[in-house]
Amino acid sequence: MKIENTKAQMRKGVLEYCILSILQRGDAYTSEILSELKDAKLLVVEGTVYPLLTRLKNVGLLSYRWEESTSGPPRKYYALTETGQLFLNELNTTWSDLVEAVNLVTTKKTT
Q1: Beta strands 62-69 and 72-80: pairing type?
Q2: 42 backbone dihedrals φ, ψ, rounded to 5°
Q3: Is 7 helix (H, G, I), strand (E, B) or coil?
Q4: CA-CA distance, 88 to 91, in Å (whole number)?
Q5: pLDDT of the residue at 67
Q6: Is 84 in a helix, a strand, or coil?
Q7: Sign, CA torsion 46/32/99/61
Q8: CA–CA distance from 21 to each of 9, 30, 36, 80, 104 (Å)?
Q9: How far is residue 50's CA from residue 52's CA, in Å, rounded to a whole number?
């Protein structure tokens, strides 16, 4: 078993949560989202993020708007919808519970 495969699956599992969290702070276009994810060492590629953004939009968690750019073509800015904010609130609770449970299991001392 290769550790890199396991690491990639772990990152992939939290990607949706991270994207919604980024957009909670304000509208962003894909390059900004990718940059923040890469800065956090989530090592994502555009080919992963674009379909995920489309899926999140299609289920009503995100909306988008086109905005003219002074340095190139128009940019698609994504925003969290009200439904997306409610979903993120639930994910925040789930994440906290999961972190607590994992910490209990992984830090338990043997007797």
Answers
A1: antiparallel
A2: -85, -5
A3: helix
A4: 5
A5: 93
A6: helix
A7: negative
A8: 19, 14, 11, 9, 25
A9: 5
- Burial of residue 101 (number of CB atoms within 10 Å: 0-12, 13-18, 19+): exposed
pLDDT for position 87: 97
CA dihedral 88, 93, 97, 98 (to 10 degrees): 0
Token pair recorded at residue 21:
């969290």
Ranges of residues in the chain whose predicted pLDDT is under 50: none
Read off the pTM. 0.87
Q: Output the pLDDT for position 18.
A: 95
Beta carbons of 62 and 80 less than 8 angstroms apart: yes
Q: How many helices (H) and strands (E) does the chain have?
A: 4, 3
Tallying the residues shown for the chain, one arrives at 111
Backbone phi and psi for residue 101, each to the nearest 5 degrees, phi listed first: -65, -45
